[in-house]
Amino acid sequence: MLKKTILILGLFITLSPVMQGQIKKKSDLFLQLKRMDSIVFNEGFNNCKLNELEKIIPEDFEFYHDIGGNSGKNKFMADMKMNICSNPDKKPIRKLVVESLEVYPLYNNNALYGAIQNGVHEFWIKEANKELYKTGTAKFSTTWILIDEKWLMKNVLSFDHKAAQ
Fold first, then answer.
1. Is residue 47 part of a domain?
2. What is the pLDDT of residues 39-88, one digit of tens each?
3. Which of 19, 92, 124, 158 sits between 20 and 30 A of 2, alpha carbons compared?
């Protein structure tokens, strides 16, 4: 029993330098990816600057949605244009639940190559002459890949969609 305990303790001590958790919310990586989330949602989703969004989506992008199925880059961009940006009189708006945002770095041989970003967001509708009203919430996980010092949104999981109470 003592041998087993020593072995487990030794393994834990050996692996603890490589075990990573969520990074600090004031770290450079966290703030960089928070800015990337802002490009996706403030620029792309909320303001329909789809050219800004398209710059950070690689050709092999994957989007998985628990209600809307899955898609690649072309369908995702077409859906954004049609479903999010086609009706300025009834415009969907996304708001990040800021305190929910988490970032987990991905390393290969001690070199940062990507990160997983998790969070919760709310969806609202903006209509002319009406107050903004909430329509629902969902969780998301985004895999960001660092290529040539540029962050690209490799894939997104959008799930646990719930209607507003």
1. yes
2. 999 999 999 999 999 999 999 999 999 998 899 999 999 999 999 999 99
3. 19
Residue 21 predicted with pLDDT over 90: no
How many whole angstroms separate alpha carbon 106 and alpha carbon 114?
5
State pLDDT tens for residues 100-135.
999 999 999 999 999 999 999 999 999 989 999 999
Report the alpha-carbon distance of residue 68 to residue 140 in Å, rounded: 14
Backbone angles phi, psi at 92, to 5 degrees: -65, 140
**Are residues 137 and 18 in contact, defined by beta-carbon separation less than 8 angstroms?**
no
In a domain, 89, yes or no: yes
Q: What Cα–Cα distance (Å) separates residue 2 from each residue in 6, 80, 105?
A: 6, 59, 35
Q: Kindly state whether residue 135 falls inside one of the protein's structural domains.
A: yes
H or E element at residue 29: helix 28-38
Sign, CA dihedral 151-64-67-76, equals positive
DSSP code per residue over 139-163:
EEEEEEEEETTEEEEEEEEEEEEEE
pLDDT surpassing 80 at residue 14: no
Containing domain of residue 105, as a range? 30-163
